[in-house]
Amino acid sequence: MLDPEAVQILEAMVAAGIRPLEEMSIAEARAMVAEAAPAEVERVSMVEDHDVPGPRGAIPVRVFYPSERPGPAVAVYLHGGGWVLSGAATHDASYRALANRAGCAIVSVEYRLAPEHRFPAAFDDAYAATCWVAKHWARQWGDDVRLGIAGDSAGGNLAAAVCLRARDERGPRIDHQVLIYPALDADLTRPEVVEDADDPRLLLTAATLNHLWNQYLASAADAANPYAAPLRAGSFAGLPSAFVITAGYDPLCAEGEAYGAELARAGVAVRMSRYPGMFHGFFAMTPVLGAAEQAVDEVAGSLREALRVDASV
Length: 313
What we know:
The chain is an alpha/beta fold. The chain has a single domain (4-311), classed as Rossmann fold (3-Layer(aba) Sandwich). Helix content is 35%, strand content 18%. The chain has an eight-stranded mixed beta sheet, sandwiched between helices. Helix 3 (92-102) packs across helix 8 (290-306) and helix 4 packs across helix 5. The longest helix has 21 residues, at 121-141. The mean pLDDT is 92.
């Protein structure tokens, strides 16, 4: 059953009149998400903005440093929002918390959003930004650089896809991937973990997910492309170690766990953590949700261990 804290949050959102995304215009949905960004955030030692070269122009990235002397460990973070919503402002609290708790630099990426820019725009931007981060850190740290990549929801999709492309094209060496309730397959007939995953109180239902995939993909053929739907990859061998978080009340729970299982079968080191009473989107709710605090600590711990942060600062 849904965690009591989760029920309180979801029912408060319903009482506030928040409608399903598929019932809003893109402009309305973006405004709603922007208004929900936390007002209070953690302090970090430094924030830097860069414009990095992309396939269709500059890509804004923001670097969050947890200390005055950042070491060679760095993690790219790709925000969620169904490839349609969100950005640096909406995920600012998460970036800062992860930088402080993981002890490494966190780099956020302002990739192009759908439906104005459909697949592969966001994916191409995510990969280009990851390549830039690897080169930028290598200028100072050389071969000592330890690179992680993380993302929630659509950002988890992009993180997994970037790892596939880096392997396929012998691109930047990515040491670890963190996938937080990732969207990995456009096949919505995949079995769901809980019977009431379409509870109208939830932030993501099957109907909303279908709507978002329709905004992202440029054609039906894209649904079979593993860079759009990483669960369709022909091989999962040679990918970075992974930490996968899923939520029990989330239509993406089954595919996140299926992806972790595929990685493990291919010999990749994987750890999975399911939050059975949680819903899609809970990770960003650290000010009001105890499970979110726990999840951020788990992600930070995963990055610290995989990127050997204690040895780097």
